[in-house]
Amino acid sequence: MREKLLPYGRQSLDDADVQAVVDVLKSDWLTTGPKVGEFEERFAAWIGARHAVSFSSGTAALHGAAFAAGLGPGDEAITTPMTFCATANCILYQGATPIFADVSPDTLNLDPEEVARKLSARTSARVKAIIAVDYAGHPGALEELGQLAKTQGQRQRERPVLIEDASHALGAEYRGKRVGSIADMTVFSFHPVKHLTTGEGGMVATNDAGLAETLRRFRNHGISSEARERLESGQWFYEMVLLGFNYRLTDIACALGLSQLEKLAANLARRREIAAQYAAAFRELRPVVIPTVRADVNPAWHLYPVRLNLEMLAVGRGEIFRALRAENIGVNVHYVPVHQHPYYRQHFQSKESFPVAEDAYERLISLPMFHSMTAQDVADVTHAVNKVVTYYQGKCDGSGERSDLLETRQSH
Ligand SMILES: Cc1ncc(COP(=O)(O)O)c(C=O)c1O
Fold it and tell me: Cis omega before residue 391 (within 30°)?
């Protein structure tokens, strides 16, 4: 057993990252300075998008995207229940209504057939956006969703905007292309467990210059110019043209982002290596179902969520989770489906269920996945999972008559 807990995710910072931050702290600009534009340009080039607009968090970036998509009271946006709540919350920030559609059983990404079903029930011009999530770093069915948005646009005369929440998927490839310029807007998060960190931070990438301008204004109080532009052009006059927020990312954070960008390719390569090692280690362990990778993608592996074949185990997910934690393996669960959170239950009182997401939730466990995991860390995880799962598999009589197959919510 490991002596110290192995977390499920953590940042990797080196001396160059520290120096980049120190240099900015000694400079004239802590915020609204030159590092912001530099980071945005280099990031956009890296993912292959025309524009990238930085935000103070991934959540703020999602809010910006929801605003730029034109969401407002009376509008609807279709999204997935299998995500972090921020994906759906950005719809609520704009006073619009989230419409959940169930996920595909293999990837746990928004199922285009379910989205089509929701859309066919809506003929008025209320659906302003489809917000897909690249769950765990596996790109969603972007082509199909884009096509559905187009078809809906003909029916309701205004095409819903496709927003891709790629908070898990920086560097992931869809049909040979990095995510970032495929959807109308692609959102990234730079929280410490992500592929690149700025402490807190986020970005919206787009090829549309109009959307980029709206996003820039929205993150800066709705003001039409930035402080440094005015200083450099000797102007003082500015106008507020829309109701925005202060969602700016500082130069301190952007300097860290620029330095982290240098290591992104190596970080991704290491995550892919760990994913391959996990897949090889668990291929024969039948109670553990490894994540599916569709033929047309190369995932970025923010998470490594396995699903438990509970019918082959004597206990539920909660017991497996606790046993792995007792082995000092920092497992986690992603996610409680959004519609099941108390806030969503109270405010929407929907009786609707999403069987694929709900069934997956009972079986999911995320194994540690981060760039600086050592070979020993990976071996510790595979050893502990094998030990715990084999033990409970041996105790299972296979009758399937188990009272704890589905856990109660209180047990987590
Ligand atoms: C899918 C998804 N969307 C949005 C967010 C929010 O990002 P942030 O923490 O940067 O606000 C997260 C954060 O983990 C996420 O996992």
Answer: no
Is ligand 1 within 6 A of the CB of residue 305? no
Q: Is 135 in the pocket of ligand 1 (CB under 6 A)?
A: no
CA distances from 203 to 8, 52, 187 (A): 24, 6, 6
Q: Note the pLDDT of residue 98.
A: 96
333 C-alpha vs ligand 1 centroid, how far in Å? 15
Output the residue whose Cα is nearest ligand 1's atom 14.
Answer: 84
Residue 83 Ramachandran class (φ > 0 left, ψ -120 to 50 alpha, else beta): beta
Quote the ligand 1 centre to 61 CA distance (angstroms): 10
Pick the atom of ligand 1 nearest to 302's CA.
16
Query: Which residues contact residue 278 at a Cβ distance below 8 angstroms, ignoring those fewer than 6 apart?
Result: 290, 304, 306, 367, 378, 381, 382
What does the pLDDT look like over 69-86, one tens digit per residue?
Answer: 999 999 999 999 999 999
> Which residue, 225, 221, 257, 260, is CA-closest to 242?
221
Burial tier of 336 (Cβ tally within 10 Å: 0-12, 13-18, 19+): middle
pLDDT band with cut points at 50, 70 and 90 for residue 411: very low
Cα separation, 88 vs 170, in Å, equals 20
